[in-house]
C-alpha cells in the first residue's frame, strides 16, 4: 500500500536562484504572491496527461493522453536539462518498460534496455518485473544518471539518460532481501496491488548517498551508490511481526521525503503513522501522534514546503480495522504542520463536505509563492490549491484512475 509521492516528486526547473534558509532555520517563508506557471505530470491507469497553468495558476489546459492505454505509474521531468521526460509504464504488449521524450512530451521512444531482474539458471526461482513504479534523477554532478524502483522490490540505474538500465546488484542480489521484503516463500509479500520499491532519494550534497523505501520492507540507506545497505527503521511501528533478535524490518512506509532546504531532515508517511527523522539520528519520531485522534495519521502521500523545513502536508485516509483507504467519514481534507509535526491544521476549503470518498495515492507541491499544492484521486479527478491549502478546486475530472502527480514550476 504505497503512496506515490513522493514525492518525490520531480524537482522543479527554476528560472531564478532562490535564497535557501539555513539548516536550523524555522522561519516561515514570505507570503508575497508571485506569478509562476506550473506543469503537472499526471500518470493514470490509461496513459499520461500534462496539465499546464497560467501565471496565476487559475486556468489549466490538459494535454493528453500520452501512451494511451498504458499504465503510467510515474512521469518525471529531468530538472538538469528541463526538457527530458521519463515515463514508467506498463503496456499491453511490451510489458514493463520506460519511455523517453526529449521534446516536452510531443514524441516518445521506448528505452533500448528496460529495467529487468537478472536471469537465473533453469530450475531455480527467479524474480520477474511486473512494473516500474518510481523514477528519480540523480544530482547535477551525475548528468544522465537516474534510478528506478520496481514491483516487486528492485532498484535499477541508468547512466545514459534512461536509454539502457542495469540492476543495482548490491540491493537486488542482497542475501537479506527476501527477509526484508517479507517474501521468503516466493509468494510476493506486500501490498494488494503488488509490493513496491519507492521513494528513491539521492542526497543533493552527495550522489553516493541514497535512501529507498519499500512497501513492504522498510527504509534503507546506502553510502556507496547501492553497493551496501543498512536498515533505517528504528522507532517505527511494525505492520508485520518480526522475530525477536532479527534485523529491524517488516515495516510499510508509503512515502519518504527529504527536505531540499534541509537535507538532513526526512519526513515519512507510513502505514503506521507519520514520522520525522533529523540526521544523524537513526530513530524516527512519530509526529502523527499529534494529529486529531478521530482522523488518525494513516495515509499514502506526503509533501513538504520547498523553502520551509518545518512545513509539510498529508492527506489522511481511514485507518480503521477495515482499512477502506478512503477519506475519513467521506470528508476529504489535507492537514498541514508548520512546526515540524508539533501541531496540525485541517484544510478542507472547497472540498466536498460529505460523500467525498477520495483515495489519494500521490500529492505534489510546486515552488510558487505561495506554494501550489496538488493531488489526484483514484476516481480520476485532480485538485489544486494556489494558496498552500487554504482553498481547493477541481482542475480536471473524469480522467482514468490517477497513479501519480508531479509538479514542475516553469
Descriptive account of the structure:
With 410 residues, this protein is an all-beta fold. The chain has a domain of 261 residues: YVTN repeat-like/Quinoprotein amine dehydrogenase (Methylamine Dehydrogenase, Chain H, 7 Propeller). Helices cover 2% and strands 37% of the residues.
How are the SSEs placed, and which strands pair?
Layout (H helix, E strand, L loop, with lengths): L37 E7 L2 E7 L6 E7 L4 E7 L7 E7 L3 E7 L7 E2 L20 E7 L8 E6 L3 E4 L7 E2 L1 H4 L4 H4 L15 E7 L7 E6 L2 E5 L7 E2 L21 E7 L2 E9 L2 E6 L20 E6 L7 E5 L17 E4 L7 E3 L12 E6 L7 E5 L4 E4 L7 E4 L5 E8 L1
The backbone outline, from C-alpha atoms, is globular
Pick out the low-confidence regions.
1-31
The biggest sheet, with number of strands, parallel, antiparallel or mixed sense and barrel status, is:
4 strands, antiparallel
- Calculate Rg over CA atoms: 20 Å
| Helix percent band | under 10%
What is the overall pLDDT average? 88
Which structural class do the helices and strands define? Answer: mainly beta
The CATH topology of the domain at 38-118 and 126-305 is given as Methylamine Dehydrogenase, Chain H
Task: Specify the number of helices.
Answer: 2
Summarize the structure.
This protein is mainly beta and 410 residues long. 2% of the residues lie in helices and 37% in strands.
Keywords, separated by commas or semicolons:
Methylamine Dehydrogenase, Chain H, disordered N terminus, globular, 4-stranded antiparallel beta sheet
Amino acid at each position: 500500500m504505497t503512496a506515490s509521492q513522493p514525492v518525490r516528486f520531480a524537482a522543479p526547473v527554476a528560472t531564478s536562484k532562490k535564497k535557501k534558509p539555513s539548516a536550523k532555520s524555522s522561519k516561515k517563508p514570505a507570503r508575497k504572491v508571485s506569478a509562476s506557471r506550473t506543469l503537472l505530470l499526471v500518470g493514470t491507469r490509461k496513459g499520461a496527461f500534462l496539465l499546464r497553468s497560467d501565471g496565476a495558476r487559475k486556468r489549466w489546459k490538459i494535454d493528453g493522453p500520452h501512451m494511451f492505454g498504458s499504465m503510467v505509474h510515474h512521469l518525471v521531468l529531468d530538472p538538469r536539462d528541463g526538457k527530458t521526460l521519463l515515463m514508467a509504464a506498463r503496456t499491453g504488449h511490451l510489458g514493463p518498460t520506460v519511455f523517453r521524450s526529449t521534446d516536452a512530451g510531443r514524441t516518445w521512444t521506448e528505452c533500448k534496455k528496460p529495467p529487468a531482474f537478472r536471469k537465473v539458471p533453469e530450475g531455480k526461482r527467479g524474480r520477474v518485473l511486473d512494473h516500474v513504479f518510481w523514477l528519480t534523477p540523480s544530482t547535477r554532478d551525475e548528468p544522465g544518471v537516474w534510478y528506478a524502483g520496481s514491483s516487486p522490490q528492485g532498484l535499477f540505474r541508468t547512466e545514459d539518460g534512461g536509454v539502457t538500465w542495469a540492476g543495482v546488484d548490491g540491493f537486488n542480489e542482497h542475501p537479506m532481501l527476501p527477509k526484508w521484503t517479507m517474501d521468503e516463500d516466493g509468494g510476493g509479500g506486500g501490498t494488494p496491488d503488488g509490493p513496491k520499491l519507492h521513494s528513491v532519494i539521492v542526497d543533493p550534497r552527495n550522489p553516493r548517498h541514497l535512501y529507498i523505501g519499500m512497501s513492504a520492507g522498510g527504509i534503507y540507506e546506502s553510502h556507496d551508490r547501492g553497493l551496501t545497505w543498512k536498515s533505517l527503521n528504528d522507532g517505527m511501528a511494525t505492520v508485520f511481526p518480526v522475530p525477536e533478535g532479527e534485523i529491524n524490518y517488516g515495516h510499510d512506509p508509503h512515502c519518504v521525503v527529504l527536505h531540499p532546504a534541509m537535507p538532513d531532515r526526512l519526513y515519512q508517511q507510513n502505514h503506521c503513522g507519520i514520522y520525522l527523522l533529523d540526521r544523524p539520528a537513526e530513530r524516527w519520531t512519530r509526529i502523527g501522534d499529534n494529529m486529531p485522534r478521530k482522523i488518525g495519521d494513516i495515509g499514502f502521500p506526503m509533501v513538504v514546503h520547498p523553502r520551509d523545513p518545518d512545513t509539510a502536508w498529508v492527506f489522511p485516509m481511514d485507518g480503521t480495522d477495515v482499512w477502506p483507504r478512503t477519506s475519513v467519514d467521506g470528508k476529504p481534507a489535507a492537514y498541514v504542520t508548520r512546526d515540524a509535526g508539533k501541531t496540525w491544521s485541517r484544510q478542507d476549503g472547497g472540498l466536498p463536505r460529505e460523500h467525498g470518498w477520495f483515495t489519494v495515492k500521490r500529492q505534489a507541491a510546486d515552488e510558487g509563492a505561495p506554494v501550489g499544492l496538488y493531488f489526484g484521486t483514484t476516481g480520476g479527478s485532480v485538485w489544486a490549491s494556489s494558496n498552500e491549502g487554504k482553498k481547493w478546486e477541481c482542475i480536471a475530472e473524469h480522467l482514468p484512475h490517477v497513479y501519480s502527480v508531479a509538479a514542475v514550476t516553469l
